[in-house]
User: What shape does this take?
Amino acid sequence: MHVYKVARALLRLFAAMVLLVGIAIVIFRARCAPTPLLFKPTDRAIHNPAQAAGLANYSRPEVDTFYTYPEWYIVWSYQSKADFQQHHLPAGYSYFGDIAQYWQAYCRMYSATRAIYPLPTGDHIMLAVIGSSFTVEYALKGLYEKTIGSLSERTSQHQPVAEDTYAARVAEDYATFVHVRPFYEFSFAHALHGLWRDTPLLSRHLLRTLERRVWLTVDYSVEAVYCELIELATHATYGFEDTTTQAWVEVPADIQSLLAPFGGRVKIIRDLGGNEAILAIPRYQEFTGTAQALVKAGVHFDQIAGNQLIVVSAIAPSEWTNKMPGLQLLLTQPLLTNSGKTRVVVLCRVAELHSALPLLGADGLAIEHLYDY
Assistant: This one.
């Protein structure tokens, strides 16, 4: 009987998710009208050059650089929440603002691509699913924290208890983890075990302690089950993700000596001669730091994953305006926990990264991420 109830609950959850996905797609088709891009998509003939013939997984769809931004927005939200919890209790966090910014980001990327790239059905399904689950997660957490959680904070005179400190540590661990690995690989079961093992039950603020312990137990338990289901579904649908991105580069000197400081993290896949090569660079957040270090060492990118356009995000002063003709500003989103900063999302030619990245830095921007498809 218990198994039957669980199965029925999961079916209801699945049906609700399908409904949310359907609603999201209908709304997007109606509201996210096409907007022009300054640059043309990479030509099909260029996408798989003869120099890369026979290399497995050399290229990925260029449109993915756009749709990777809303996917990563969830990472930025988790990091923002983790940073907030280091110094504040969770009731004050911008849960509903983050929900709105996710869908704004998704809509803007769809508007920029819908008229010139083939419809990436898989990307839309993925973003609708994770966006719907993100919306449900933050809506429930926001409603709870701003009602029961807020009342609970008052009982402790807004002083953190051991469970608050532990939750802030888990949030930081989770945010750090999702920079380099898919979110569903994080062990919330381990976090749940640590909650009961590492935090004392006795407290000066017993009501807050009990409320946090119950809430975090429910939260981590649901997250653990959800991550397990998403991991199974992802592997069944897409297999296992590549862990590297291949890039065709030009180097100013001997390539072996140039790559020596990277300690084997960047590998030569094919030496093309004439100071050109195809490299394998780690994906996710590590790609951003590695690509910046390569640019600083004098490397010029010709292609990344077979593409000539790439989306870049950076943190800028709130008054920043784009004055660079080689960049197209796609989106600005104010940081909801820092009124003096805004996140800017720009489109750049891959071949101009070596000049664009330093210019952005000189203009007071901190490069956040290169969206490597």
